Amino acid sequence: MVPIYILVPLVMLTDAREIAFYIWSNWFKVTLICQYAKHGSWLQIGAIQRCVNYVLQSEIRNWEEKMGQSSVLMLHPSKSPMALLRRLIYQSSQNTKTPTAVKSAIVGALRKGYERGQINGDLASFQRILHLQDEDKIIWTFGERGTAEIMLVCHIATTILGARLPTHQPPAYSEHMSAANHISQYCAYLVAHYPELLPEDDEWCKSLYKAVEKDAKRVLAGNDSMESETSELDYQRRLIQLLSAERNHKVLKDGARLAEQLAEEGEEAAWKALAAFWSEMILYVAPSDNIDGHMEAIARGGELVTLLWALVTHLGIVGRSDNTTDAATVDV
Fold first, then answer.
1. CA distance 145 to 203
2. Which residue has the higher pLDDT, 128 or 68?
3. What is the pLDDT of residues 248-258, one digit of tens each?
4. What range does the record give for the signal peptide (predicted)?
5. What is the per-residue pLDDT across 60-97, written as a single tens digit (0 to 9) for each?
6. pLDDT interval class at 226 (50, 70, 90)
7. Residue 326 in 3-state DSSP?
8. What pLDDT sits at residue 38?
9. Cα Rg, the chain, nearest whole Å
10. Distance between CA atoms of 287 and 295, rounded to whole angstroms?
């Protein structure tokens, strides 16, 4: 009976913690305000007024303007004990302040969608084509592949293209580079840790990410010294050669081939195309009917995709023009 006596209080404490966590969440406070405004009779009941005042007195957790960052390619793994411990604690993800370039790119993509007439109650399926912005030249067509798979393919290409960039002089296209890199790693973070906020099956997204990450670690194992022995351009070429090997995961191979094709177009044109692609992609996944998932995100302090979900919902955008739910049809 002793284990039962220990287990029952623990279960009760866990339930009480979950209830308290919900009561003090932003979502509950917003719901309470809506219900309080809707029921005029509550204004006459002092006990209800005191309860509402007590709950609303607590500070509402605002979004800290941070976005999670993850990557399936650990190109610069640190081997210090503290770095290893930090990686275990944060599950290979970290938060960074959302750059202004990211906000500008997303708002710009939304504005362009309206100007082109692509948005009319729904968001167009932007992510199926990657093309150069100035020439409108198609670089890559994704066909009917799932959203998570497309994200990982482009994430790998973006990571390779950004490998070993010079730090002494920021290029003229640094804003495009910053937007593409940050949104790319944020989408990888969503696939790995919060796939319920994406329009695909949760478990399939997680298993796909783990399979690609595992294969990437196998491919890159033993190549840590490569970056110190080669120039930036040779390093990128070596990465493409390693990741595009025939026995690798299809996502790795396609990501490497896409990086190679982007590099041939020139870095400035490539980063401009990637910045546009990623800003349109994050807008594409923003509409959602998964209220519970976004409620939990708000309770944690907010996610960038949750703010975009609220934004596009208020703009009357509640779906996608292709009117399809992405299907997990690729072998993991």
1. 17
2. 68
3. 999 999 999 99
4. 1-16
5. 556 678 899 999 987 654 444 444 333 433 344 578 89
6. low
7. coil
8. 73
9. 23
10. 14
Query: Could you tell me which of 275, 303, 124, 78 has the C-alpha nearest to residue 198?
Result: 303
Phi-psi map region of 302: left, alpha, beta (phi>0 left; psi -120 to 50 alpha)? left
- Answer left, alpha or beta for residue 328, where phi above 0 means left and psi between -120 and 50 means alpha: beta
Q: What is the pLDDT of residue 273?
A: 92
**Residue 270 DSSP class:** H
Helices (H), the chain: 2-23, 26-38, 46-57, 81-90, 100-115, 147-161, 174-193, 202-220, 226-229, 232-243, 250-264, 267-285, 291-299, 304-314
**Could you say which DSSP state residue 126 is in?**
G
Q: Which two tokens stand for residue 209?
A: 């990410």
DSSP string, 131-194: E-TTT--EEEE-TT--HHHHHHHHHHHHHHHTTT---SS--TTHHHHHHHHHHHHHHHHHHHH-
Number of Cβ atoms within 10 Å of the Cβ of 273: 23
CB 109 within 8 A of CB 275: no
Distance CA 178, CA 98 (A): 10
CB 189 within 8 A of CB 64: no
Angle at 159 between CA 135 and CA 293, to 5 degrees: 100
